[in-house]
Amino acid sequence: MSDAVNPGSGAPAVSLADRVAVVTGAGGGLGRSHALALSARGAAVVVNDIGRDTEGHGSDDDSPAKRVVAEIEERGGTAIAHAGTVDTTEGAESIVGAALERFGRIDVVVNNAGIIRDQTFAKLTADDFADVVRVHLIGTANVTRAAWPHMRDAQYGRVVNTAAGAGLYGNFGQSAYSAAKMGIVGLTRTLAVEGARRNIHVNVIAPMAVSRMTERIMDEELQKRFRPEYVSAMVAFLASENCAENGRIFELGGGYYSRVAVVQGEGVVFDDVPTPEQIEERLTALSDVSEPFEAAGSDDLMPRLRQRLAMS
Q1: Please, are residues 151 and 195 in contact by the beta-carbon 8 Å criterion?
Q2: Which of 94, 119, 164, 300 could form a disulfide with 295 if both were Cys (CB 3.0 to 4.6 A apart)?
Q3: Does 3.40.50.720 match the CATH number of domain 20-260?
Q4: Of the listed 177, 230, 256, 257, which one is catalytic?
Q5: Active site residue 177
Q6: Is the pTM of this model over 0.70?
Q7: Domains of the chain, residue spans
Q8: For 126-182, how does the pLDDT look when each residue is reduced to its tens digit (9 = 90+)?
């Protein structure tokens, strides 16, 4: 039985009026949906997309980004197209620079750009592995790094990064994609700690929705259910001033929304260096997470560890 959501909760309206957002990989699919959702809430949007295929092949083409800009403008919004690449420092700086030049500020970054090179690890080339990690993980870091000093100066920022269930749980044939996506989770958690004092909130979503990357594995019924708009509603909230969440992981798709947490179990303590046999004997106990502890950052773990050792 699912919980129904009452939209009449009395909470303040989510507004992005006077905010400027960059959305990468926004020429179609999820990115397009995010750009439209942010614009609908009042944000001026830099629609970034290099126009290549899902594997990152082909020539740069700004027409997908321009089409999304046209959609936004037809709906009364404000947007500009940008075809810079995220996987170089220069490209990322040009994306953020476009926002600063046209709108004079940068408040929101939605890191959505990515490619796939699905192969089993035994068949995946080193170059393909590096390409996927570079676009997803390094690209996310590059664009965020370009925006970071401006957010720090403004004492405000919202960053929404994109992970995936493959990163959280693993998936056959997606070693590079999974590694990059879980790397984005680690990046998000640390940036959330570093940005908190400057009112910069950084969260990560693990979406499931129809896109160029997923349409080939979804049947028609699933495609109807897993519309990108379900994901973009959460992105619009996380991109807003209303959002007090920071360092969180949200999994969502098709109307299902859930927070995912990294937790630590109660664990066991050995009085001396254990033998492998002793570890095996207590494996069930040390693997038990029925009473989970969730840390906001690594600084929360040392006091807990000291307490556990003192109890031994």
Answers
A1: yes
A2: 300
A3: yes
A4: 177
A5: yes
A6: yes
A7: 20-260, 263-310
A8: 999 999 999 999 999 999 999 999 999 999 999 999 999 999 999 999 999 999 999
